[in-house]
Amino acid sequence: MEVDSQEQLQRKQSTYLSLDENFEIQKEVYRGQQYSQIYFARLHMMRTLLYSLVPNWKSHLPVCTVLELEEGKECIIVGTLYKHMKLKPCILDEYSKERSVAPLIKPHNFMHQDDYLVLEDESGRVKLGGTKLSPSVYVTGVVVALHGKETSAGAFFVEDVLEAGLPPQIERPLKSREDKYVVFVSGLSIGSSSSNPLQFQLLVDHITGHLGDEEEQGLAAEIVHLVIVGNSVEISHGLLNGQNLASKDQSRLSEPFKELDILLTQIAASLPLDIMPGSSDPANFALPQQPLNRCLFPGSATYNTFRSCTNPHCFELDSIRFLGTSGQNIDDLTKYSEAKDKLDFLERTLRWRHLAPTAPNTLGCYPFTDRDPFLIDSCPDVYFVGNQEKYETRLLKGLEGQLVRLICIPRFCETGVAVVLNMRNLECHALTFGTQISS
């Protein structure tokens, strides 16, 4: 009787739509093009948007370019911020004879009290003053509108700031109003010294419904999707020094992929999964990272439930929009700006309508010539970022009724934590897998 009830247990299904096309590099060819073009494309798109918002913000003020500024005359200027940072590493310093020996104040962060902001458009640039625009909050690459006036010293005294704000959001459909769960996991780091194969297997067994009693298996049957958010393997840097590998080193190089493929094959046989590349995975370094080659997964890639995706990754499940990265964009923001927690950085990127504002200044990205793929034109329902120190979440509410679930997904290898999201109400919780035996 018990066997029959288990046989009748069916996994729930959901409709899937990939929206990664914007992040795929197909016809683009690198011919030594400069990065200025991606900044021009960003400024053009964002300026059009900000101009449309100005009438509801300060309709009585004229909009000027930097070149048209007049001393003492109040106006609005729109442009790209550049942050001058005293401690920001410079590649030219490597070749300088008079290299500074002053230690960094904070090795993990390059902020300094003397940092200042500059606004730039096609006509020129101007240094910004006043206390309204804090250098600790903003980074190079953000496009804003500023209300203020030019001072006798030639700077622009900022009196007010207008950001793009959360993009418009498509209303969530009623058909998703049943319990369906999406599981997020990142930082498996298979092949690292701290990885725990038993912990990985517990995760797989839980997702596929091979653990627990009937009630737990019933909950597992409501998991409709798994997203693996980068850094799935870790390969010793000593093996990647460009020299021919000995046979034993080749085995060490391929072993993490074999182990990962075995785990993914078990999952793909049971439910759909997306795998994104991360900074430690064998993918291109610059964003957007292209999908991991399917030849790395000879077992799991044979299933139509297996999808190798880009980073950033955008998709819809039952018309609920998900947008996320493997963490590089947020990790870079933490080096060049400050916030009370990582969720603040996520919120800022949404309000700036840009996934990676520090690219290409301090974050590697492909030199697009006619577009900026990191602009956010539609507000996601779920915005996730992987490979963080700990699990954090917040429900962000916009002025036009937008609701966004922000999620920081911790490194599984270090924490044993995966994140589960209920598509019915966007509530989420941590799922912890431990293998220690209590005494």
TrEMBL record:
<dbReference type="GO" id="GO:0006271">
    <property type="term" value="P:DNA strand elongation involved in DNA replication"/>
</dbReference>
<dbReference type="InterPro" id="IPR007185">
    <property type="entry name" value="DNA_pol_a/d/e_bsu"/>
</dbReference>
<feature type="domain" description="DNA polymerase delta subunit OB-fold">
    <location>
        <begin position="34"/>
        <end position="161"/>
    </location>
</feature>
<comment type="function">
    <text>The function of the small subunit is not yet clear.</text>
</comment>
<dbReference type="Pfam" id="PF04042">
    <property type="entry name" value="DNA_pol_E_B"/>
</dbReference>
<keyword id="KW-0808">Transferase</keyword>
<dbReference type="GO" id="GO:1902969">
    <property type="term" value="P:mitotic DNA replication"/>
</dbReference>
<keyword id="KW-0539">Nucleus</keyword>
<dbReference type="GO" id="GO:0003677">
    <property type="term" value="F:DNA binding"/>
</dbReference>
<dbReference type="GO" id="GO:0043625">
    <property type="term" value="C:delta DNA polymerase complex"/>
</dbReference>
<dbReference type="InterPro" id="IPR024826">
    <property type="entry name" value="DNA_pol_delta/II_ssu"/>
</dbReference>
<keyword id="KW-0548">Nucleotidyltransferase</keyword>
<comment type="similarity">
    <text>Belongs to the DNA polymerase delta/II small subunit family.</text>
</comment>
<keyword id="KW-0235">DNA replication</keyword>
<dbReference type="InterPro" id="IPR041863">
    <property type="entry name" value="PolD2_C"/>
</dbReference>
<dbReference type="Pfam" id="PF18018">
    <property type="entry name" value="DNA_pol_D_N"/>
</dbReference>
<keyword id="KW-0239">DNA-directed DNA polymerase</keyword>
<dbReference type="GO" id="GO:0003887">
    <property type="term" value="F:DNA-directed DNA polymerase activity"/>
</dbReference>
<comment type="subunit">
    <text>Heterodimer with subunits of 125 kDa and 50 kDa.</text>
</comment>
<feature type="domain" description="DNA polymerase alpha/delta/epsilon subunit B">
    <location>
        <begin position="182"/>
        <end position="391"/>
    </location>
</feature>
<protein>
    <recommendedName>
        <fullName>DNA polymerase delta small subunit</fullName>
        <ecNumber>2.7.7.7</ecNumber>
    </recommendedName>
</protein>
<dbReference type="InterPro" id="IPR040663">
    <property type="entry name" value="DNA_pol_D_N"/>
</dbReference>
